[in-house]
Amino acid sequence: MTYLLALDQGTSSSRSIVFDALGRVVAQAQLELPQIYPQPGWVEHDPEEIWRTQLATAREALAKAGITASQVQALGITNQRETTVVWNRRTGLPLHHVIVWQDRRAEPTCVALRERGLADTIQAKTGLLVDAYFSGTKLKWILDNVVGARQQAANGELAFGTVDSWLIWRLTNGAVHATDVSNASRTMLFNVHTNQWDAELLQALDIPASLLPTVKPSSALYGEVAPDLLGHAIPIGGVAGDQQSALFGQACFKAGMVKNTYGTGCFMLMHTGGNFQTSHNGLITTSAAQTAPTPEFAIEGSVFVGGAVVQWLRDGLHA
After folding, report:
1. What is the mean pLDDT of the chain?
2. Which of 7, 74, 79, 97 has its CA 20 to 30 A from that of 237?
3. Measured distance CA(296)–CA(274) in Å, rounded
4. What is the rounded CA–CA span in Å between residue 138 and residue 159?
């Protein structure tokens, strides 16, 4: 019997699940992820805590399943999207706390982009509305506000990624800096028609291309887990942002199929196939999880606070 290991790095927790060859859950482990609120409207995570909890749950899930890593055929990653990590390529050390997707500190940058008349261009290329939700403005904030960050970026010393890229980097001991199209499509820097980073958008946000990860289809060989971490070199064979992976996991493979899920937030996605469809009602267009290089799309509506309000009531109001 061979197995698959799924890493689910979410906003509220890190979880790992072992599946057998028939898709049945064999074992799972989960650890809560602490939230950091430096000031109103700001939400952060400790990137080392993300890594620690994710690795710990992977080891625990394998132990609960009673198997070794050598029995795992492949590992897949699904992750909280838009959440932004910047680290040093040489040392692997994070430059700043992770800026979480819910964080609003980059709104002044969004105002400036709108005033420059770039909103239509950004939506046409990325499918996204100009909003602090997305990673590109968060990355710009880090480069502009962390001492020495701009110079280090200009020297090619820094790496940027969403949480999947951070986990891939750590899992491969720094050998691979990569992401998938579904996560790249949430940065406001990625042309979803060509599946490439967009030079005009990088220039608009003053972001050096050297920071960016290689982009692959959601189903691809990303590299191998370093043997010392789990006891064996496991291929990393799939990556997708949490909502696109939920769309795929609910078997919504064709245009017109819709899913709605409830977690930290609430998200509705409708697959639109190869049709890049622009909403006239405030929804966004995004890349769906892709098993091939050909672009596929979805329309998405998001509610930022769902299950997160329960955690806030507990920790903030002690309710």
Report:
1. 94
2. 97
3. 5
4. 14
pLDDT tier for residue 108 given thresholds of 50, 70 and 90: very high
All domains in the chain, ordered by first residue: 3-250 (3.30.420.40)
- Share in percent of the chain as helix, strand, coil (round to 5): 30, 30, 40
Tell me: pLDDT of 310 over 90: no
Asked if 125 and 286 touch (Cβ cutoff 8 Å), the reply is: no
What is the tens place of the pLDDT at every residue in 182-200? Answer: 999 999 999 999 999 999 9
Strands (E), the chain: 3-9, 13-20, 25-32, 44-45, 72-79, 85-88, 98-99, 158-161, 178-180, 190-191, 196-197, 214-216, 219-224, 235-241, 258-262, 266-273, 284-287, 297-303
177 Cβ partners below 8 Å, 6+ apart?
Answer: 89, 159, 161, 165, 168, 169, 213, 214
Note the pTM of the prediction, 2 decimals.
0.91
253: amino acid identity, one letter = F
The answer to whether 13 touches 79, Cβ cutoff 8 Å, is no
**Three-point CA angle 258, 262, 265, nearest 5°:** 110
Cα 50 to the chain's mean position, in Å? 12
Is the Cβ–Cβ distance between 80 and 100 less than 8 Å? Answer: yes
3-class secondary structure, 265: coil
Supply angle C-alpha 221, 224, 230, rounded to 5.
140
Which residue is associated with the tokens 């199929």?
257
**Residue 151: pLDDT over 90:** yes
Q: Are the C-beta atoms of 15 and 57 separated by less than 8 Å?
A: yes
